[in-house]
Amino acid sequence: MTSQPNSIAVPKMLPHGHVGMMSVITTEIFFFATLIVVYLAYLGKSISGPTPEELLSIGLASINTVALLASSVTIILALKALRASNQKKFLTWLLVTVALGAWFLVGTAIEWTGLVGDAHFTLQTNLFGSTFYTLVGFHAFHVTFGVCALSFIWFCGFMGWVQKKHHQNIEYVSWYWHFVDTVWIAVFLVVYVIGR
Amino acid sequence: MIDKPYSPRSSKLHEWVTTADHKKLGVMYIVCGIIYLIVAGCEALMIRWQLAVPENDVLSAETYNAFFTMHGTTMIFLVGMPILLGAANYFIPLMIGARDMAFPRLNAFGFWLFFFGGLLLYFSFLGGQGLSGEEGAPDVGWFAYAPLTSTTFSPGSSTDYWIISLFVAGMGSIMTAINLVTTILTMRCKGMTLMKMPIFAWMMLVDAILILIALPTLTAIQIMLLLDRQFGAHFFDAQAGADPLIWQHLFWFFGHPEVYILILPGFAFVSEVTPVFSRKVLFGYPLMVIATISIGFIALGVWAHHMFATGLSPTVLAYFSGATFLIGVPTGMKIFNWIATLWGGQIRFATPMLFAVGFIAMFTIGGLTGIMLAVVPMDWQLSDTYFVVGHFHFVLFGGLLFAIFSGFFYWFPKVTGKMLNETLGKWQFWFLFAGFLLTFGPMHFSGFEGMPRRIYTYMPNRGLEFYNMLSSIGAVVQIFGFGLFVVNVLHSLRKGKPAGDDPWDAWTLEWSTTSPPPPWNFATIPSIASRRPLWDTKHPDDPDWKYE
To answer: Which residue from B191, B220, B241 is facing A127, i.e. has the nearest CB?
Structure first.
C-alpha cells in the first residue's frame, strides 16, 4: 500500500466495560450531587420542627457506616479470591459482602421505622423530612440494587457459572459498590455530622 | 459475501422494532425527530396566528400557554435531542471504523425510552385533565418554574405528564450518552488516535459527556417536583421555608449545558460539511478540539445568566456575566476557523454548503445578541422580552436547524443511496432563510419596544403591531420551506438519482463503504494514517499523513 506510512499507531484503548461503568458512575455522581446540594441549601430552613438534632442518632448511622465500609473491603477480598481461582473463598467473601449490605438496609429500616412510627416524621412533615428521606432513600435504593446484583452473582457462582475469566465483569460491579459506599460517606458527613 | 443475519420473521415492522443496529436506530431517531419538528412547527404556527394582530382570540390564554410550552419542550427534547443522538448513532461507528456501538441493546433501549417518553408527553393532550374535554397539555413553560408548578397553581395532571415524560426520555438520552462515550473511547480503528478522529467524533464526545453531567440534575429536580406534587413533599414550597429559586438554579445548571448539548452537534455537522465543499482541510483542527473542550467546561459555569433579574448579589452577577463573555471566546474561535476554512477554497454551493454558510452567519448573529444579554443592565431591560426569544431562535433555528438541514442534505445520500433534489433544496433554503429572518428578526425590535414573551395577546397602539405582523408573515413563508423539504424527501426516496458511495468526493470513513452501508458497515475494518483517510486513498502520491 503506497498510501499508508510504514507504521500505523494502534491507539491504546480501554475495554468497553471500563469506560461504560465510569460513565454510569459519572452521571450518578451528578445525580447525588444535586440531592446533596439541595439538602445543604435547605439545612435549617424548615419553618416547623422537628430538627435533625432532635431526631437523628449518630450511633445507629455509625454502625451502618462501619458495615458498608467493611463491605467494600470484603468485595476486594472476594475479587482477589476469584482471580486466584479460589471458588470457595470467593463465594464466602461475596456472601459476607451481601450480608453487610443487607445489614445496612436493615439498619436503615430500623431507623426509618423509629422516625415514622414513633416520631411521626415523614416526607410531608417539613422541609427537613422531604430532603432527608429523598437523599437517604435514593442512596438506600442504590444499595438495594447493589445487594440484588451481588446476590445474583453469588447465585451464579454457587451454580458454578462464575469463573476466573469473569473477574473483569465482577470488578465493574465492585466499582458500582465502591461508588455507593463513597456516596454514603458523603451522605453520612452531610446528614449526620455537619447537618446535626 | 456475508449472508444476511438469520431472522426468524421477515416482517419489516418486526425487523425495525427489534433491531439493535446503530444505523436503523439512528434512522428511527431522525424520523421521529422530523415528525415532532412538524408537530411543534404547527404549534408555533398557531402561536404566530394568535399574535398576528392585537387582541386576537384564535387561542384562549390557557391553550396559548399549553402551545408555547409544548412547542419549546418538543423542539428541545423531541426534535433537537433525537436528531443529534440519531446522527451520532448513525455516523460515529461509521466514522471511527467500527461495526456498531459498544452496547447495541442498550442503544435500542435508549431509543425506545425516548420514543415512549415522547408519546407520553403528547398523550397529555388527552390525559392531562382526565378526558374532561379541557385542554390538558402542560402549560408551565419549558423550564417549569416553581412555584407555578405546585398543585395549587397547576392542578390536574398536566405537569406530571411533563415531569414523567421528560424523565423517561432523559433516561434514554443518558444511556445513549454512555454508549457514545464508550464507543468513541474504545472502538476506534487502527491508526485513529484521538487527534486523528474526525472533528465530528470529538464534538459528539464532548456532547455526550455534557449529557452525562447535566441531565441527572434535571432528573433529580423532576423527582423532587414529583414528590412535591404527588406525595406532599416541600422542596419548592415557600410556605415550608423552601426557596423556589433553587429550582431555577438547578434547572439552568441542566438547561444551559443543554443549549450546548444541542448546538455542539450543529457545530459538528458544519465542521464536516464546510471543508468538503471548500475543498480544503478544516482550518485549525487542534484549536477546534481545544475550543470544543473549553465550551464544554465553561458551559457548566454560566447557568445564572438566565437569572440576572432574580436579585442575585453583585458578586454573583459579575461572575456569571464574565463567564458568559468568556464562553464567547472559544465559540468565536470556531467561527473564525470556519471562515478560514472557506477562505481561498474552491467553494461549491450545493445545498449542504448553503445551509452551512447560512448557519455560520445566523449563528454569529445569535451569538452576538447572546453577548448583549450577558451585559447585566442590558439583560435587566430585556429579560423575558421578545428580544430573548429572537436571540435563542437565531441560535437554535438559524444555528442548529440550519446545521441539521446541512447535515441532512450531506448524509441523506449515504443513508438512503439516493440524492436529494438540488433545485428543491435550494428553493427550500431560500424560503427558510427569508422566512426565518422575517419571523425572528423583528422579534428583537418588539422586544426592545417592551413586548414580554409568553403573553397570549397585546394591546393595539403600543408600537407592536407591525413587528408581530412581520413575524407572522415570516412564519407563513417558512411553511413553503418546510413543505418543499417534505416533498423533496418523499420524492427523492422514490425517484432520487442514485448516489454512489461518495457523491461529494469527501474524506471521512463513512464514504468508503456502500450507500446505504451494509449491516456490518465495513467488510474489513479500515486502518487510517491521517484525518482524511479517503484523501490518502485517492491521492497516493500526495497523502495527508506526510504533513500531519
So the answer is: B241
